[in-house]
Design goal:
single chain, about 240 residues, alpha/beta, two-stranded antiparallel ribbon, 8 helices
């Protein structure tokens, strides 16, 4: 099993913390978010991780140089990170999608039990990891479900359409990887593609009739890292996130 980590962004909403480092290099308990991700993937049996870099790539490469785990790690630089969203990072990494793989946002910190559950899941060609909560805000990547199938995903879903949220962690088998790669390539040929999130490709796949599954991690520990509030919450709950 391979993994792709999308770590090209700066994290401007976290300034001044990200003035001189990408948000994937912010430290939790003395180690970067990125290396916590690598450690969790390694422990779950992933053999290789590709980290897509962008903002200050030399610093990310230096941090990866400190990695001493079993899993091999390589980097792939996205020169378009300042003008494109993360669909372009997926396009840059498309040649690595030649078999089943995991896809993880560089700003999603997940506990080991979550990674273990996602790696073990094998019910779907494409599986989106989801969580549920009492209410969702405008920044959440909301999901519409039909049973365990994903019918739509996006930040603009209305409350009555929202059943869960995506945490930014997906699993693809070989067939799902080929479909996703093809969809990414098609979308990057459109005028809207340059500004699209990669989950817009998942939404397009679902709405075209493709079966997109989900993996629920309700009640398990994770956090995104977008805002100072997220950062403060991570510092307070670090022990449960990096177990």
């Amino acid at each position: 099993m391979k993994a792709i980590i999308l770590s090209a962004g700066r994290g401007s909403r976290l300034l001044p913390l990200t003035e001189n480092k990408p948000k994937c290099l912010l430290e939790v308990s003395g180690k970067s978010v990125l290396r916590h991700q690598l450690s969790a993937l390694d422990k779950a049996g992933v053999d290789h991780a590709t980290v897509v870099t962008g903002f200050l790539p030399d610093l990310v490469e230096e941090d990866i140089g400190k990695w001493d785990g079993r899993m091999s790690v390589s980097t792939l630089f996205n020169p378009f990170f300042q003008v494109a969203d993360n669909l372009a990072s997926c396009w840059m990494a498309r040649d690595t999608m030649d078999e089943g793989f995991l896809l993880l946002n560089g700003d999603t910190l997940v506990s080991q039990p979550i990674v273990d559950r996602v790696v073990a899941a094998d019910d779907w060609a494409v599986s989106v990891t989801i969580d549920r909560k009492a209410a969702y805000d405008q920044d959440d990547m909301k999901v519409t479900l039909e049973g365990e199938r994903l019918k739509a995903i996006g930040k603009r879903l209305a409350p009555e359409e929202t059943d869960a949220e995506s945490i930014g962690f997906l699993k693809f088998d070989a067939d799902g990887a080929a479909l996703f790669r093809r969809t990414v390539e098609e979308m990057l040929r459109t005028q809207e593609g340059i500004s699209a999130w990669f989950l817009k490709a998942i939404d397009a796949m679902a709405k075209s009739g493709q079966t997109i599954g989900t993996c629920s991690i309700e009640g398990m520990n994770w956090s995104e890292l977008d805002t100072p509030e997220d950062w403060n919450r991570i510092q307070k709950s670090a022990a449960s996130l990096i177990q």
